[in-house]
UniProtKB/TrEMBL annotation, chains A, B, C, D:
Gene3D superfamilies for this protein: 3.30.70.260, Formyl transferase, N-terminal domain
Lineage of origin: Bacteria, Pseudomonadati, Pseudomonadota, Gammaproteobacteria, Thiotrichales
Protein name according to UniProt: Formyltetrahydrofolate deformylase
EC annotation from Swiss-Prot or TrEMBL: 3.5.1.10
Alphabetical list of NCBIfam families matching this protein: PRK06027.1 (NF004684), PurU (TIGR00655)
CDD domains linked: ACT_F4HF-DF (cd04875), FMT_core_Formyl-FH4-Hydrolase_C (cd08648)
Domain of life: Bacteria
BP GO terms, sorted: 'de novo' IMP biosynthetic process; one-carbon metabolic process
Keywords: Hydrolase, One-carbon metabolism, Purine biosynthesis
GO MF, any single term: formyltetrahydrofolate deformylase activity
Top-level enzyme category: hydrolase
Pathway assignment: Purine metabolism; IMP biosynthesis via de novo pathway; formate from 10-formyl-5,6,7,8-tetrahydrofolate: step 1/1
Active site: D228
Length: 285, 285, 285, 285
């Protein structure tokens, strides 16, 4: 993977944004290796993402940012630029089920995941040795109705301590406290084992079996205070039939869950996801 | 397509059903060209479907049916046997949108659909010439809140008069009266333009856009008194992104709608669908 | 659909292309509603497509084109700009099988296809009444080994006479003469009923059955002198099993064929396909 | 998972097979939990698979087998019956790439794989610690052109010593010697990273990129003496575009490879795959 800067912008739409930004980049000698635009015509809002070859940009990131402010103000941009050489730090939250955790740790270990796993926090101790094989610190923080406030206070401290910028609920079976959802808006990614908005909440495969659907799915989304209702990043489905028991659905579903979570997380880590209201723009490749 | 009889059975599960049925067929010389079984372990219920080469069955359908009664009683079977040479008669209900109607008429015309289209009934007159090119009688019965009872009384008379055994709501934008849903239980097939149970009711693509899903779908299901809640026969989805407007979703969705409806209808016409509670067993090929 | 101009560019890659083009558009007040870029790093080649709101562009198309030449020369661009209000003229070539022809005619009739069907040319007379229902001129030009040169000479005359800019081989079972392939480079679109490069040539479903594959597919591609080897625009597949006969494969395959052809053709008609060597860049939405 | 016996039969087709087999099972009190049949009409050959609840079968497996011989001879059956409580022993062959090995080991560890991994044999030492974390013996047998005969002689000895019944080439980058292919006919499963028969041999993603296909795939097949030409068990594909580099294709392809291999292997381990000539019948659930 080349060393790139990722410039992400959203602002009210008007004529001249692309020209101004492209000219600014060109003036610094920047080579654009990927560019994506989107105009939300209904809301007159504009979204843009560029990948710029780091080595090509005269003056580097600081010079870029300093000069860009004026432009950004003129167009009322929300923007940030990130450096692929400084991968986002990830805290993985897990419980007992290992498929999502194992999948993410393996991708990270194989340098497929463009982020840095800094710790695993789990409400059960079962997956400790797996995390430790990958040489990732593992913290067992049990959560019971009584200890929940204390447990999440500890959890947040750990997240802060590790400097984690992304929290991934890799089949973590606990609901985060509302305040934590607020504090980490746009930073907590969950995998829900249904094709949302169908089958919100507990035991979605049982719900799916009850309704007799012919496809089951998984949804990767940002966590908000409302259960399973945050902005959707990625979804996929798999075909089932009457012949599949709920156990079969769980088995087949695991493959969809881990793939959808890995895809969604990669999009987030590469700054490909722009949240807009309760929806996302995903500049996928 | 070979001339076959389709024997469809459901009954409480017990040892010996397959053996007894297979022996009965073998005793009459019947060649089985397709056989499917399913046991619903949770409900201890058994489902079976056989296709038997018509020419191979000594004594034909009547002899078969007569002798089979005893066996059927012993195992408390619900059963029926149908003749592929007597395709089910289909009434197509349409409105203004043509994609599902055009698709079904074309498949029927090309002898792909194992049924016989006997009439088109529509609440607008727009699709008359299309039906007439296919030499299918077209009846325009407008439906307004005031005329609804009268309109559906006429509609039912037409269905009876044509001897239609299946009613297909090919994007027919009216809700059938509850009594009609009851009278034709398991005989009315609808296509809903969402992946049910998500986005029940009106304007599902608007609902999908609102929620920001990454896949849109279509559901072919039997109509019951509860809107969009009947047994599901077939579903499929297609990938969308932020770049797709609601008009794009409608355009892409039409392809899924017509394909899912055609598949679901074929399953029904070939007696591949067994309704069980609010779910279906579909012995698909 | 809005009235837009589509500006399509390919040229050697260098810094400043996007800025220059975007600035040129902005200077004329042009509102960009869709923009796509791609850099082929291996070949150092750049591809770009813009949709510009027609009403927003001061001076219209002629002013744009005149001024753009200088810019285009500076960057050694191959470029063209097309007007969505002047849809490309399409000649549909067919034989006996109707599914692709019926599908395209229906989409065109429903104003879904962003092109204008000007004639149907077929080597059999079977589909005449279908074309005529859509009020499209139908020409029956039989092709035999003896009459082939004469037949294709007539065919080309018709294509010229109708001013067709795109030829669609909608399951036309004849191989075009090499000279015609050359004359219409990048203008003839074929649908091949396999997932190319597997199963080139005749009877691909038989070949697929012979090899025992678990998926069958269809490929929409530009026609070149080498059979089934031209640049691929679009492909898709569908799952099959041992239970599917060759007739089943044909039936299931028809749905994939017509969908893939319709998608590929739409991409071409909207100037979304850029041919580069024997490959394509498809700026799909 | 219930304890079941799996009865797998293939024989010339004739009337009465199903009846005789079902009667035989019923006479021993056997509860059938899954049954699948297939008739290959072109070759007049019949295939059948039953899952029988172990506890329900009077006299157990030995009594069944003894009595069944007479029936099997009468119908000229090839048949075997296996016991889900005696999972097949698996030797995993690997090289340097870990994704397939990691995936299979994890599934096995989580008791998802209905088999028993007895050893890993690799031509590089890189994956030793991964195998050892799962407490699976790891053998490093380097293969060079000079040492190939000796290396495979050692390899076969290990396979024998561990009593492995299935060899899985989990991205093992060596071609097995012809004699070993023969000795283990129907027991060696490979994953090839293309949608066969496209892109046989080395570097299929490079071949795919060269041809400009719009989907890439993976194929799980039995190994025969002819490279990448054995009976196909399972295949799948994933969509790509011009925007994907060969590295992207490798990354995306890994997910398809491991999923297709895991599915194909599960089918084999549960005796769901019947080889017939160079094709397979797969009684999938």
């Amino acid at each position: 993977m080349s060393h790139v800067y990722r410039l992400v912008i959203s602002c009210p739409d008007q004529v001249g944004i692309v020209a101004s930004v492209a000219q600014y980049i060109a003036d610094l000698g920047g080579t654009i290796v990927e560019a994506n635009h989107h105009t939300d015509a209904a809301n007159n809002w504009f979204f843009m993402r560029h990948e710029i070859l780091a080595g090509s940009l005269r003056g580097g990131l600081d010079a870029f940012a300093q000069g860009f402010k004026k432009l950004a103000d003129a167009f009322e941009m929300q923007w940030h630029i990130s450096d692929s050489a400084k991968p986002k730090k990830i805290a993985l939250f897990a419980s007992k089920e290992s498929h999502c955790l194992a999948d993410l740790l393996h991708r990270w270990h194989e340098k497929e995941l463009p982020g840095e796993v800094v710790c695993v926090i789990a409400n059960h101790d079962d997956l400790r040795s797996m995390a430790e094989w990958y040489q990732v610190p593992f913290h067992h923080i049990p959560v019971t109705p009584e200890t929940k406030p204390q447990a999440f206070s500890e959890t947040e401290q750990l997240v802060e301590q590790y400097g984690a910028e992304v929290i991934v609920l890799a089949r973590y079976m606990q609901i985060l406290p509302p305040q934590m959802c607020k504090d980490y808006t746009g930073q907590v990614i969950n995998i829900h084992h249904s094709f949302l908005p169908s089958f919100v909440g507990a035991r979605p495969y049982h719900q799916a079996s009850e309704r007799g659907v012919k496809l089951i799915g998984a949804t990767c989304h940002y966590v908000t205070e409302v259960l399973d209702a945050g902005p959707i990043i990625e979804q996929d489905v798999i075909r089932i039939s009457h012949a599949h028991s709920i156990d079969d659905m769980k088995r087949l579903g695991r493959d969809v869950e881990k793939t959808v979570l890995a895809r969604g997380l990669r999009f987030h880590l590469e700054d490909r996801v722009l949240i807009h209201g309760n929806k996302t723009v995903v500049f996928d490749v």
